[in-house]
């Protein structure tokens, strides 16, 4: 709609001639005013970061398996524990570049529990949750690769605790959607679960199954440098969407 058009059938009147008034000249801005404007802009930037940015966010990333626990093994022998650690390291790099603080439950090919290979499954999972809870993280993500006896099965899934919060579901949806957009996998949806690590963490928590390491094509993707970068970028984008 053109709000500047004259009503149909009406004549457009010319404005009466007016005597031009002198335009007041603004005094030059002082150094103090320049500083004040800069301070105001800095405050606006800080306020925007607090609302939408990842600056100052504390994010716990749990690379699934490790040490004596290889996790699932793909057709060519690629181990889940290796994929999850590589993705988590790249994800840490991306998130820290955006100003977040990232806590990895493990930084190498080791168990997390102080008992090492002697720890029970529950003790190992408990140790992972404890790291996130002690750090008072804002969110928790456990990174995994799925597997099935039928090698044709493929796709990406995100899980949150069955009795979890709306924030956990929103985090799962955000990460799953962005990850699929990045790596082009089949969408297997967001599902509820009773996985220990999403049940015993004090913050919004999810477990992400990147794709099926038992599927030859997806195993190849997850073992490539390009695939690792795309996976990490997709998860980072999902986290940014969640905080946005």
Largest sheet: 6 strands, mixed
Helix amount: 40-55%
Distance between the termini: 34 Å
Please count the helical segments: 7
**Structure classification:** alpha/beta
> Order of strands across the widest beta sheet?
2-1-3-6-4-5
- Our estimate of the beta-strand percent is 15-25%
Radius of gyration (CA) equals 26 Å
Task: Name the helix and strand elements from N-terminus to C-terminus, one letter apiece.
Answer: HEHEHEEHEHEHH
Question: Given the C-alpha coordinates, what overall shape results?
Answer: globular
Number of strands: 6
Mean pLDDT: 87
Q: Which stretches are low in confidence, meaning pLDDT under 50 for 5 or more residues running?
A: 1-21, 45-51
Can you walk through the features of this model?
- The chain is of the alpha/beta class and 244 residues long.
- Helix content is 42%, strand content 16%.
- The chain contains 7 helices and 6 strands.
- It has helices at residues 31-52, 80-97, 121-135, 166-183, 196-199, 216-222, 225-243; strands spanning 58-63, 101-104, 139-146, 156-161, 187-193, 205-212.
- It is globular.
- Mean pLDDT is 87; it is low at 1-21 and 45-51.
Identify the notable features of this structure and list them briefly.
244 residues, alpha/beta, six-stranded mixed β-sheet, 7 helices, 6 strands, disordered N terminus
């Amino acid at each position: 709609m053109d709000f500047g058009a004259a009503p149909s059938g009406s004549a457009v009147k010319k404005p009466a001639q007016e005597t031009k008034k002198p335009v007041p000249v603004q005094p030059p801005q002082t150094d103090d005013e320049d500083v004040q404007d800069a301070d105001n802009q800095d405050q606006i930037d800080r306020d925007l970061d607090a609302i939408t940015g990842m600056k100052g966010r504390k994010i716990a990333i749990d690379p699934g398996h490790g040490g004596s626990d290889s996790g699932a093994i793909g057709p060519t022998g690629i181990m889940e524990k290796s994929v999850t650690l590589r993705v988590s390291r790249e994800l840490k790099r991306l998130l820290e570049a955006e100003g977040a603080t990232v806590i990895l439950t493990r930084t190498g090919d080791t168990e997390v529990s102080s008992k090492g290979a002697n720890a029970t499954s529950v003790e190992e999972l408990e140790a992972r949750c404890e790291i996130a809870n002690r750090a008072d993280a804002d969110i928790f993500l456990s990174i995994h690769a799925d597997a099935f006896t039928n090698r044709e099965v493929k796709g990406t899934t995100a899980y949150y605790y069955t009795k979890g919060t709306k924030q956990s579901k929103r985090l799962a949806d955000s990460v799953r959607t962005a990850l699929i957009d990045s790596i082009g996998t089949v969408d297997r949806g967001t599902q509820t679960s009773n996985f220990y690590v999403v049940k015993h963490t004090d913050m919004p928590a999810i477990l992400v199954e990147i794709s099926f390491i038992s599927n030859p094509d997806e195993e190849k993707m997850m073992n490539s440098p390009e695939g690792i970068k795309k996976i990490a970028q997709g998860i980072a984008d999902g986290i940014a969407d969640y905080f946005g």
